[in-house]
Amino acid sequence: MIEIALVGKPNSGKSTFFKAATLMDVKISNIPFTTLKPNKGIAYISTQCVCKEFNVKCNPQDGFCIDGLRFIPIVLWDVPGLIPEAHKGRGLGAEFLSAINHVDGIIYVIDISGKTDLEGKEVEFLNPIEEVKFLINELVQWYKQNIQKHIPKFFKDKKELIDVLSQKLSGLRIKKEHLEKHIDKIDDLNNFSKSLLFESKKMIIAANKIDEKNSEKNLKELKEFLEKENINIKVVECSALSELILRTLDQRGIIKYNFKDFEILKKNELSNEQINALEKIRELLRKYNGSFILNVLNALVFDVMQYKVVFPVENENKLSDKKGNILPNAILLEKDAKIIDLAEKIHSEIAKNFLYAIEVKSRKKVGKDYILNHRDIIKIYHA
Q1: Do the domain assignments include residue 111?
Q2: Whose CA is closest to 298, among 13, 21, 19?
Q3: Average pLDDT over residues 42-61
Q4: Fewer CB atoms inside 10 A, N or C side of the chain?
């Protein structure tokens, strides 16, 4: 399962984002360092299911489907707030850094309103650009520390250096091909570390508190800065608090929320003030095209990490497994994944005894090197 970490300074809204995404009961406060140890939960990304194309009602065995929108589980980490010099152990730096060693992607949750400083304390204004600079620098310095201590004193050539570092840095998800691509920058450790960071950890910025005054102005300036500095990080608007309100009310049965809009079911349980607040949230949903949390997670997994979803079945005519569950599984695979990678995900024995597969939409027979497309339906035949 894909693992993603929420990263940011204290009081940026990470825990609110985490609770809205997972509905886990975590402590939320505007006091810095509310999160003292990493929290781990299950969140969901979404894509269009293939059930409507085939006019069937699917029965997911992992995740769920709402009106043709398939929700697929991922692991989400909420880690302690990051403050300047966390890579040196300041604050809860050690806990933060160890928690994101193994993750596939990172979401920078920033306070786009600019109302908190780099340590999470309330201020009149801090430019969110400074927040992004500091977050990137902390991760670069952390990578630099890890790389520096593993560079051998003596090595014959760069090939040997790549072999050594690929073993020592595998815990950071740094691969041999990442090192081969950037090894010529080894003499400039800052540049080398930054390049490896952006290769091994896919990132996105969640511009949180977008509903606050001046947030849109700050967002425009941040995007202009990133473009000017050639920093290729996607920015997505977010209001984690609005999402948490909607999901909590949905869970209590007061509204029905479909991640695009909502219907108030029990108006008598809400005050006029609460109804007015909900209508303002509805305007935000329409303005930013639905669920803030889903928009951020989907943008990271599908746009930045470029994962695709494949539906394996055992009966290609009924689109079911052996028990009759229709479209039971939706499996996330990397962008260049082939049929044999899907087989390995399902079971190593299926991969070992692979014969051929059927791409159900076209009814074509395909081999193990067939590169999968997003939303393919696949039946695998094996010995």
Answers
A1: no
A2: 21
A3: 96
A4: C
Strands 69-78, 39-48: pairing kind: antiparallel
Domain assignment present for 368:
yes
Tell me if 208 is assigned to some domain. Answer: no
**Can you give the pLDDT at residue 311?**
98
Residue 113 lies in a domain: no
Whole-number pLDDT of residue 171? 83
Backbone angles phi, psi at 70, to 5 degrees: -90, 130
Domain count, the chain: 1
| Distance (Å) of CA 300 to CA 206, 342, 359 | 10, 21, 27
pLDDT per residue as tens digits for the range 88-133:
666 555 556 667 778 889 999 999 999 999 988 999 999 999 999 9
pLDDT at 29 over 70: no
Range of 328's domain?
A: 308-382
